Amino acid sequence: MAGMDSSTASQTSRIVAVTGAGTGIGRATARAFAAEGARVLAIGRRAEPLDETAAGHDRIRPLVADITAGGEPERIVQTVLAMHGRLDVLINNAGIVRGGALGTLAPETIVPQIATNLIAPILLAQAALPALEASGGVIVNVSTSVGQRAWPGSSVYAATKTALESLTRSWAVELAPRGIRVLAVAPGAIDTPIGEHQGLTPERTAAVREWQLARTPLGRIGRPEEVAWAITQLAAPAAAFITGVVLPVDGGAVVA
Asked: Which residues contact 47 (CB under 8 A, 6 or more apart)?
């Protein structure tokens, strides 16, 4: 391809799967990869948000799937391979938050978070393993900066994300001999609908934002596009010697 070096050509021909792609960081990530020329499978539970993600982006294809349902990780990978014949990058972004202090936690609060934030990424990565090995691919897990510090009232969420970071490091070592890199980004306070999905009132959401701002040295809420940039850079062929890293994208919150 004239005027394009080999690393750029490799970047633009890649096939990327992004979970939780209907809103927020997942949507921004799908669009960021598509803007680089990759072909993207945008995965989520609701068709309408996925269609909005793909609107105006002919390199993005939506796939409605519940990553926690039996057989869905395998179906997702089979769909990618049927469409494109390969998979180069898997972004485990889907996540849910359910608040609650110890003593108030019911199974319906605990179980969905573990299923979505922890078990589903494991099973999806496992299903994708042969394809990623064939392509010398990359897994990027989306954690949270609260995984590295206390978050009273959301302990289960923080625990699932801390576990995801541990998986990132373990998989990086385990899969390096197979040519697969594994990384994570740990977003801080980002302007996404996660509070609305959690069922918070506007007043409670505002209070959470105030708390986050007070603990973010850069003094503002981040944008999904800023997290997406970090994900695309870690997954880029030029980052081929980086693995096992958990990169905070949090305005300095973790180090404050």
From this structure: 62, 64
Amino acid at residue number 208: V
Give the global pTM: 0.92
In this predicted structure, the answer to whether residue 147 has a pLDDT above a threshold of 90 is: no
| Element spanning 110, H or E | helix 107-114
Whole-number Å distance between alpha carbons of 85 and 81: 4
Contact 19, 66 (CB under 8 A): no
| Distance in angstroms (rounded) separating the CA atoms of residues 242 and 177 | 14
CB 97 within 8 Å of CB 113: yes
User: What is the tens place of the pLDDT at every residue in 84-107?
Assistant: 999 999 999 999 999 899 999 999
| Catalytic residue chosen out of the listed positions 157, 184, 250, 251 | 157
Length of the chain: 256
Concerning whether 157 is annotated as a catalytic residue, the answer is yes
Angle at 132 between CA 128 and CA 134, to 5 degrees: 125
C-alpha 208/C-alpha 211 separation (Å) is 5
Neighbours of 81 (CB within 10 A): 16
Radius of gyration over every alpha carbon of the chain, rounded to an integer in angstroms: 18
CA distance 195 to 27: 16
Tokens of 151: 């978050």
Query: Quick check: 188 and 249 in contact, CB under 8 A?
Result: yes
